Amino acid sequence: MSDGFYKNRRLKSSIFLIVCFLVTIIPHLYKFEALFYFILIISFVIVFYGLIVISRNFKRNKISNCNTGKVSNKELPVLDILVAARDEENVIARLVERLFNLDYPTNKLNIYIIDDGSSDNTPLILDRLSRQFEKLKVISRSPNAGGGKSGALNYALKFTHGEWLLVLDADAQLKQDSLKRLFSFVEEGDWSAVQLRKSVTNISKNFLTSCQSMEMAMDAIFQYGRLSVAGVSELRGNGQLIKKETLLACGSFNEDTVTDDLDLSLRLLLSKSRIGILWDPPVMEEAVENLSALLAQRQRWAEGGLQRFFDYGDQLFTNKIDYIQKFDLTYFFILQYALPIISIFDLVFSIALLDSPIYWPISFTAFTLSGIAFWYGSSCKSEVPVLQKSNFLMVFVSLFYLSHWFLVIPWVTLKMSIFPKKILWRKTLHTGV
Hints:
This protein is of the alpha/beta class and 433 residues long. It has one domain (1-63, 191-433). The chain has 15 helices and 7 strands. The radius of gyration is 22 Å and the shape is globular.
């Protein structure tokens, strides 16, 4: 895209940051007696809607899981699995071997691995695997081809001919019967796309990986609830199934964002395409194992999350979507992006002006809802346990883990507002352990 496009994002980031600044500092400088009651009302609305969203999961096992439904081999569609792989020597062989062991008609399953300019042994491993598995299709791109993961997936689209596409990361792991159960879910719900719940394989590695496992379960709880209440749900990159004609109608994968899944989710919403959320079977993946990798990953997610709202915000507030969908998007935009910035400003002004924090009831409410979703997501029946041993103390301590977003979001917004930076894709290292 043009430099003007990136400057537009930079301008919107600056405006968003300034608005959060004014919303915070004005009440500290000018005391409004009714403000505290107004904040309490907002907190009540947040609790009320949040609990409704979470409670929609109570009947999830009966409604969304189609473990008993079966689709005959004759009825199953042609499926293309796409994996964009760059420097994945630790996991790519395991992935390919497991994909070819999936329970799905071989004449209806095509597996494409895109070697996206790897500099390690990935090309050599793929060459060996292509001789071992005749149906494996390896697509190579040069290191400077551009577009990141989106560019690799778009490049591979021209080689595909299936009705459906399943996008996986190189560290993905599926159960043997996942594909058949996935299409049972598609048939029952008439979805245009489906996101499998993400689950962590290295849960017990350390505190961070355990917290990420709980966070993924919490996210699935909110996603399913939002879908049930407002018809809003999001893709999560790994384990996303989409009808090819729907993807092409939406403009394929956006190469000008760092999170193609979040960007595509909004475009699907605007096109009235429905994204289903399937709890079981999940797609399993590695959680990052150290703080540095976690913060790098979360900065990319935060930047991509903001980019999509800056890019499509004007369309979201037209008549293209329903009022309940507008409310839902506004609700979660405030909690996920505005609240962390306002809370940091609120803390700084409280210290500088020797004043009491103003917006603490909203922050407290947000953490309480997260804690409920953490606990519920961790205790729900699932084929792959969210925790090795679930307990209330772990849930409580993990809430402190969530506070990293209150640092990441303000920092990323500030960077987007100041620096004339273009798209930069960062790879998450997969160890294969």
